[in-house]
Each structure stands twice: as structure tokens, then as C-alpha cells.
Amino acid sequence: MTSAPSRPLPQHVHTFVVGAGFAGLALAIKLDEAGERNYLVAERGDDVGGTWRDNTYPGAACDVPSQLYSYSFALNPTWSRSFSPQAEIQVYIQRVARESGVLDRFRFGVEVEHAQWDEEARRWRIRTSRGSLTADVLVAATGALSEPRLPDIDGIDSFGGEVFHSAQWDHDADLTGKRVAVIGTGASAIQIVPEIAQTAAHLDVYQRTAPWVIPRHDRAYTALERFGFRHIPGLQRLYRTAIYWGRECYVPAFAFRPELALPARLLARANIARGIADPELRRRVTPSYAIGCKRILISNTYYPTLAQDHVDLVTDRIAKVTPSGIVTEDGTEREVDVLVVATGFNTTDMPIAHQVVGRRGTTLAQEWAEDGVAAYKGATVHGFPNLFFLIGPNTGLGHSSMVFMIESQVAYVIDALRTMREDDLVAVEPKRGEQEAWNADLQRRMRRTVWNTGGCSSWYLDDHGRNVTLWPRATFTFRRLTRAFDPGAYHLVPAHEPSPVPAELQELNA
After folding, report:
1. Which pLDDT score is estimated for 223?
2. What domains are there in the chain, each with its CATH number?
3. Comparing C-alpha atoms, which of 335, 268, 295, 341 is closest to residue 450?
4. What's the pTM?
């Protein structure tokens, strides 16, 4: 654990960062390097790591190659495998945090309860579980996979056995010899199922929609490779670069030519045929939508596990949960001792949006409920001065490493803060027209993607049916667009501005 000793919160900081996962830590390191040392990172957990600290379920691992799933400024020569297990990723994040020397400005066990923009003082007033403070700039680095989504199933609160979400794994629960049910067949579930099937007496897997699953080309690095990563200059970066461009080759199939994904579809079908002999079971695990419409999963063991005698795939919808089991709509009740909920996260309804109040006195959640989830470059929102997101709307990926996107947005925020300091600005806020134009272009591009044309519904979509989660272009394009802060797209408030609200903003919001 890298947790710094508990210290009181200061009364004021220039930059207040919420979240100590990959994004929050990267920003802290780059703030330090830029000489912006008046900042604080608040984390509700007891350590750095974010999703990699919290998701400790059996089989937890990354589905992006290890060489790409690390900071470009802190490569890790000690990866043991081509795809990293959760524990190794967490150790890596902890090591980077320790060696960077920034932990003295982290506060753990601090949950942000409310943050409101004070137009007159031109700063954020923030209330946390450990006290209140003010900040000139607020950065939300909470990530999309931070708030578990619980299923709305009749009677689930009455279940008499052990029940827990995959992101809140109960390691005291002994599944040996138990009847276990797993609800969900997403990225976490397909890692969990093969692991717990080894000890459970019986396992029911409840599938609402079949996922596409391709082979996991995972292997242990050889001793020679690990030696080379440590001692041959440029070798590890060469590996990383090759993987990066290999992953970018997926973009055309996702973004504008779904038919190019035929090789992946054939690979997935071969994976089914290799793992399952029973024709009926093969039929039930074969998706009816285009590959890529939902997140493509990777596993060599998921299908063979479903084919085992003590494992049942249940495709009938769940009607209710009883104190001793699960009843499906066909009236069948299956007895259960332990219930594992692997139903993902609240990705389009960010919890922090309910806690942040902008210039007009409304929360970000209220603004988005009316107009739809939207931001400018996934980083800033009109009506919320000096608020920046890391991993904001439409910055997610279906093919590559989110660390690349995080570093791109961190560079944008750092340059914004530099601009504010050099130009003596007390507030920056994206112009409504610029934000609308950015998102109109995103949604125009989104219309031809597999996520919109592939015939599925997914967690990528908001309540309006808009894909507000993913980036529909190449990642190098996103990096180019966020390489530098673009003040022309913003309302800029100089420190000497006499009016609390500039005239152009008064007209804009009239």
C-alpha cells in the first residue's frame, strides 16, 4: 500500500483533483514536472490505483497488452506476461506513485460530497467527508469504471446467501462446494466464471446478450525478453510502438467500415467451435449482432468452462430473486448459495455529475439530463468554469489503451493551466457554440460506426440513445487535437475583469 499518512486538508489549493487512479496520478506527476505544485489529489479509497485497486475478483486481468497499458514516461520492464494480471498492474501504479515523489499531496479516505462554483470569488467551494476547502481549478479524474451498477431485480434484497458485485469481491466468501450464480457475461464475468468453476459444486451463468469472445493471445515473457527490456535501450519502446500501431489497425472496422471486421468474426466463431461441442450451446453463445457493436472480449477458457457438466448457461430472463435462489420467466427456480453480480458500471451517469454545481446553479447531471452528456474535447463543459475532466465524455476506446487517452488529456489540462498562469486568467469556460460544434461532429461520425449500426444496445449509449462513451476516430487524431490548449474556443476571464459575469456570457445565457 502506498497510502500517505492522514493529514488535514488545506483551506485552499490552486488545483483540486478527484481520483487517484491512472488519470489522477498522471496529472499529479505532470503538474509537478510543470512546476504547478499547489495541488491536492483526493481519493475516497485507501490507496492509488482506482479500478485496479478495487477489482480484485478471481482472474482479474487487463485486456490490453501490458506494454501499452503503462505510462509512456514510466515503462515497466518487469511485466511477467503479455497481458497483465490485476495484481501486477496495481503494484506498477503503486511503484510509480512512490518513485514520483507526489504522494505528500494525496489525501486518502476523502470523498467529495459537493462542489459549487462561486462566480463572485471565481473559485470552487468544495465539501468533502474530511472538511471543506476552496480551489481555483477542479479536475474530475474519477474514471468511467468507478461506480458499480447493481441490477434492478425484484427480490434481490431478500436473498439469504452471500451476494456481492464483481468490483466489491468478498474474499471471505468461500465458494468451495457451493451453488454459485453469476449474473452477467461482460468483461469481468468471463474472467470470473472459469476461475470459480474450478471450486464451485455448481455454477449458473445468466446471460442476457451473448458477447463476442476472441482468443486471448497471452504468454509469459521469456527470460531473454525481460533481460532485453531492462538492459537494451529502446527495445521495450519498440515493442510498445508495434503494439500501438497494430491496435490502430482496428479503427477502420469500428469507425466506418464494419465489414472489415470479418476476420475477427471468423476468429470468434472458431473460438466457439474450439471450446464447445454441443450445437445448441454453440447457438446460444453466438451473438446476433455485428462484432464490435458491444465490447469485444478475450478469453481462451470461457467457452470450455460453459461446456463443463456442472456449469449451466441460462438465457431465460430473470423474473425475481428469492431467499434461496433465482426464478426465470419460464417459472424455473434454481437454488443458489452465492450470488455474484457482474453487471458493470455506471458509465453514462457519472456520480460526480450529481455533486458538481456550475455557474447557473444547476448540477452537471441536471444539465446533461436536459441536453445530453457532452463536453468539449471530453475535457470541459460550458457553464462550469475551471472544471476539467480526465476520461470525460466520448474519450473511451474499444480497441486500445486508455492510458494513451489519459496522457493526451493530461497534456491538454497542463497547457490550460500554463495559459491561465501566463495570461493571468481566473476562469476559462468553453463557448457553447464550440462545444456544440465538437459534439455535433462526434455524433455525425458516430452514425456510421459499428456501435450505432451493429444491431445491439450497449453501455456505450446514454438514455437518449447517443454514444457518449467512445471516441470514433484514431487515437493519434485525439492526441493531435488535445496537444495544446486552444484559448480561442473559450471564454477567458482575466484577473482584472470587473464584472462577475462577462457581458458575452450574460448575453449567451439570457
Report:
1. 95
2. 12-147+346-508 (3.50.50.60), 156-218+251-341 (3.50.50.60)
3. 295
4. 0.93
